[in-house]
């Protein structure tokens, strides 16, 4: 078995005086899509932000390909090959799609092959290339945010609730795009939408109240209805 791409061990994070994450241990295998599920306020975003160094872990270890990254600056963590697509997508509405993409490159230049791959994944981005990002629909903005994360080769992409507020038909397109992206990079996906998560995830961790409540394979969770009922009662959106 290959070594995990990312390992969290005993990670606790405080925001101001609040203890948000408690002793989080998590292993993300190399390759494929891996899911972190949990209800609103469970600590999913805080986990991703802690991995990126946007919140500092008070204690614990975060290793990326075996290297400790818990004390590194966010820019150095990104340079190691980790991209983060935040829930608010982090795109610049006043800039064009092209300008948004250019800002995500290291030197302002595009590699044609990567751009062609992105156009194939998200044709709308080619159509709206010279248009302002404000003119994109919610789904297209999400596509732009993901495209920015893969315009350079990445080892690991952290994506925070990409399906939030999107129509089912767009979510379906997103499944195909994620499968394609996962051929090149490992994806750690934060979700509340269990149907989307189970169609993509190889492994799953469930977080509740800042603590890991379950880890295992998605196949085992899908096969075990009793376990699902117990874990999904942690207020996931099972009806979607
Ligand atoms: N800047 C902040 N200041 C104080 N508390 C915060 C801050 N950001 C998050 N929290 C608290 O940390 C806890 C975890 O929040 P987090 O955003 O990680 O949850 P989440 O699982 O991502 O939820 P959601 O699905 O709503 O984004 C919540 O109780 C939240 O209120």
Tell me what the structure shows.
The longest helix has 14 residues, at 168-181. The strands form two sheets. Strands 6-7-8-3-9-10 form a six-stranded mixed β-sheet, sandwiched between helices. It contains ten helices and ten strands. The relative contact order is 0.19. 35% of the residues lie in helices and 27% in strands. It has 240 residues and is of the alpha/beta class. The mean pLDDT is 92. It has two domains: 1-81 and 155-240, 3-Layer(aba) Sandwich (Rossmann fold), CATH 3.40.50.300; 90-153, no CATH class. The protein has helices spanning 44-51, 74-79, 97-103, 112-121, 123-127, 138-150, 168-181, 194-200, 218-223, 225-232; strands spanning 6-15, 18-28, 33-37, 57-64, 67-68, 82-85, 156-160, 186-191, 203-208, 211-217. The radius of gyration is 17 Å and the shape is globular. The structure holds adenosine-5'-triphosphate (ATP). Residues 15-16, 18, 20, 38, 40-46 line the site of adenosine-5'-triphosphate. Keywords: Amino-acid transport, ATP-binding, Nucleotide-binding, Transport. It comes from Hoeflea prorocentri. Residues 6-234 form the ABC transporter domain. This is ABC transporter ATP-binding protein. Belongs to the ABC transporter superfamily.
